[in-house]
Design goal:
By secondary structure, the chain is an alpha/beta fold. The protein contains 15 helices and 11 strands. The strands form 2 sheets. Strands 1-2-3-4-5-6-8-10 form an 8-stranded parallel beta barrel, surrounded by 5 helices. The two termini are 31 Å apart. It binds (3S,4R)-3-hydroxy-2-oxopiperidin-4-yl beta-D-xylopyranoside. (3S,4R)-3-hydroxy-2-oxopiperidin-4-yl beta-D-xylopyranoside binds next to loops. The site of (3S,4R)-3-hydroxy-2-oxopiperidin-4-yl beta-D-xylopyranoside has 6 residues, from loops.
């Protein structure tokens, strides 16, 4: 007899189609429906090459999620490969896919640092005046192209340094423009699409710690200056979470009047994981989602991928992987079931 889990996966993949209309109605409720009832968006970072190569991936994406991020294809390297050329063939398919499936788009990202910037930008020795022009023009052009179609933008990504005293990371932007570059970026994005939610996005600031304090101070000072920063993104590439500390940290950010987004959640494990590790991982996913749902300002929860078949973790954290809620065969892991259960709480 087919287990509930296998049945659920077949339904996710659309293989049972109309067979389950009444008998499986409850099982068939997608994460995005459950999330909508709880007032949050749920989504993932994705790559168009993956949904083109693997239709099951596109089917799960469209069925289960209502927001997507382009994992790499809206970054400078992809979208602005030469100084005077933008490549919309990189980015348009995400906006088209989202619109075809009633999903929103998080644009990611308008201002980042080496080694993720194109070489032409990093290595041309641009002056202050050049860089102000380049950053303003990039943001104006990219945000302007998708005005009204990309609901939110990660405007500045990872500006805070990892090392104490957690000032600004040393980048072409901070070195050449000074701290004002963040204000410039947010103001340019707001001018290009006044309706978009503008996000400051970073990692390592989810639970209380010195880096979280630095992110808080940065966002607080921008808000105090009237800079249009509307939300804080917590990436959450994590191995564990102190849920109480996370909740307290979210609460203080919420008092700044910003929305809170979980933007890139994954929970990496040493590979290969055993059943206990997967169970524990499920509980971490559950705690993150529960904490978000208990905080009214927390409006979005996105993972950095869907299935362990496609994840950045093994390449960037050798010896680790299995970080996402579906396994490499698109079978639900305890993490997937935990997400479903938490979202289904009345
Ligand atoms: C990562 C992608 O997943 C990789 O494919 C790429 O090689 C490097 O970038 N924080 C971010 C994301 O904001 O853009 C990063 O994505 C992961 C960490």
């Amino acid at each position: 007899m087919m287990s509930d889990l296998n049945l659920h996966v077949l339904m996710m993949l659309g293989l049972l189609g109309g067979l389950c209309v009444s008998a499986c109605a409850e099982n068939a409720v997608a994460l995005r429906e459950l999330a909508a009832r709880r007032g949050v968006l749920i989504g993932a970072a994705v790559g168009k090459h993956i949904w083109r190569a693997n239709p099951a991936y596109g089917a799960v994406l469209a069925r289960e999620f209502n927001i997507l991020t382009a994992e790499n294809d809206m970054k400078w390297r992809a979208i602005h490969p030469e100084r005077d050329r933008f490549d919309w063939s990189a980015s348009d398919p995400y906006v088209d896919f989202a619109e075809a499936h009633g999903m929103q788009v998080r644009g990611h990202t308008l201002c980042w640092h080496a080694p993720f910037n194109p070489t032409w930008l990093e290595e041309s020795g641009f002056t202050r005046v050049d860089l102000i022009g380049l950053l303003s023009n990039h943001i104006d052009t990219v945000v302007g192209r998708y005005r009204g179609r990309v609901a939110m933008w990660d405007v500045v990504n990872e500006a805070v340094a990892d090392e104490a005293p957690h000032g600004l990371r040393s980048t072409i932007w901070s070195q050449t423009l000074g701290p004002d570059y963040l204000d410039l970026a947010f103001r340019a994005a707001h001018a290009a699409d006044p309706g978009a939610t503008l996000v400051y996005n970073d990692y390592g600031g989810e639970a209380e710690c010195a880096k979280a304090d630095a992110i808080y101070a940065l966002v607080a000072s921008m808000r105090a200056r009237g800079v249009p920063v509307h939300a804080v993104g917590f990436q959450m590439h994590i191995v564990d979470i102190d849920a109480e500390s996370f909740a307290r940290n979210l609460a203080r950010f919420a008092k700044l009047g910003v929305d809170l987004h979980i933007t890139e959640l994954d929970v990496r494990l040493p590979t290969p994981p055993d059943g206990e590790a997967l169970r524990r991982q499920g509980e971490i996913y559950r705690k993150v989602l529960r904490t978000c749902l208990l905080q009214p300002a927390c409006r979005v929860i996105q993972m950095w991928g869907i299935s362990d078949a496609y994840s950045w973790i093994p390449a960037y954290f050798p010896g680790h992987g299995a970080a996402l809620p579906l396994d490499a065969d698109f079978q639900p892991k305890p993490a997937w079931l935990a997400l479903r259960e938490e979202l289904a709480v009345q």
